[in-house]
Amino acid sequence: MKLSRRDFVRICTGTVAGIGVSGMFHPFVRDVLAETLTGQRPPVFWVQGQGCTGCSVSLLNNAHPGIAKVLLDIIALHFHPTLMAAEGALAFQTMLDKANEYAGQYILIVEGSIPVDEEGKYCIVGEVGHREYTMAETIDMMARNAAAVVAAGTCSSYGGVPAARGQRTGALNAATFLKRRNIPTPVINVPGCPPHPDWMVGTLVMLLDAMKRKGVEGGVLATLREADDLGRLKVFYPNTHLTCPYLDAFESGDFTTSMTDKDGCRFDLGCKGPWSGCDSATRKWNGGVNWCIANATCVGCTSPGFPDEVSPFYEN
């Protein structure tokens, strides 16, 4: 079964009749993805830098399809420090060798920011033959030969907490790091602290699907055309406040002064929803059970200025 680009995006956003957006995608899409992406798939390497590993933990919560299906049938994940059984020098060297073998064809996922001060020694990600590899050196090597870089999470997309005021490591986001190193590999951002598993899996699926249909270079370019000016795929980051269930209260000036008030808008309590630009309000989290503003306020974690420009998170 073949899907047009328009139908694929409509299913991703849940705009097809009978297909919801809570949880990843309708089971129908699972079958389509299995059919579309089987066979030779570009290798995916996931490298973790300065971060809390929360983006990986979020990925493991993917529900439809389950994470086993994602890793075994949809994404050819060759390296992930948290998920793989192998470790140490052998695992790291295998990643380098595999990347050399598939130069120009693989996808590099970067989780966490990249520290560059003190020669990058604030973050060591591997060791081979008693030689330590910093996050900066590893991303420099891997990104140069990648077809595309996917920045998983706000730390990798925009700097996040490691790059906030007061940091001493020279933490950079992936796109800035590549620009300073004159590495032209395109970057697709998947911000969030952490990002919804749908956003991560969906971004990868759209990229892999485009690469299969249009070739490596053509597929990457086609995917980039789906991104906004912040490097996020618009299908998951619509950059709108119009889907918030409290929109009517916001527009009518009905602002609550208490978290226990389930009806009023939380803007006066510090909600950053108007600037966040993601689909949490309709997609929801935890299998569609709840979402951020149901019991709190949005802290703007998908925004480039997180956390400095959106602090304080709560206001009295």
TrEMBL record:
InterPro entries according to UniProt: Cytochrome-c3_hydrogenase_C, NADH_UbQ_OxRdtase-like_20kDa, NiFe-Hase_small_C_sf, NiFe/NiFeSe_hyd_small_subunit, NiFe_Hase_small_N_sf, NiFe_hydrogenase_ssu, TAT_signal
Principal subcellular localization: periplasm
GO annotation, biological process: anaerobic respiration
Positions that bind [3Fe-4S] cluster: 298, 301
Cell location: Periplasm
Cofactor(s), names only, from the UniProt record: [4Fe-4S] cluster; [3Fe-4S] cluster
Domain Cytochrome-c3 hydrogenase C-terminal: 239-314
Class of this enzyme: oxidoreductase
Protein residues bound to [4Fe-4S] cluster 1: 52, 55, 155, 193
Keyword flag DNA-binding: no
Location of the NADH:ubiquinone oxidoreductase-like 20kDa subunit domain: 52-207
EC number: 1.12.2.1
Residues reported in the UniProt entry to bind [4Fe-4S] cluster 2: 241, 244, 265, 271
Catalytic activity: 2 Fe(III)-[cytochrome c3] + H2 = 2 Fe(II)-[cytochrome c3] + 2 H(+)
GO molecular function, one term: electron transfer activity
Record-level GO cellular component terms: [Ni-Fe] hydrogenase complex; ferredoxin hydrogenase complex; membrane; periplasmic space
Alphabetical UniProt keywords: 3Fe-4S, 4Fe-4S, Iron, Iron-sulfur, Metal-binding, Oxidoreductase, Periplasm, Signal
UniProt keyword annotation of Transcription regulation present: no
Pfam families attached to this UniProt entry: NiFe_hyd_SSU_C, Oxidored_q6
Family: Belongs to the [NiFe]/[NiFeSe] hydrogenase small subunit family.
Known partners and oligomeric status: Heterodimer of a large and a small subunit.
Descriptive protein name: cytochrome-c3 hydrogenase
High-level lineage: Bacteria, Pseudomonadati, Thermodesulfobacteriota, Desulfovibrionia, Desulfovibrionales
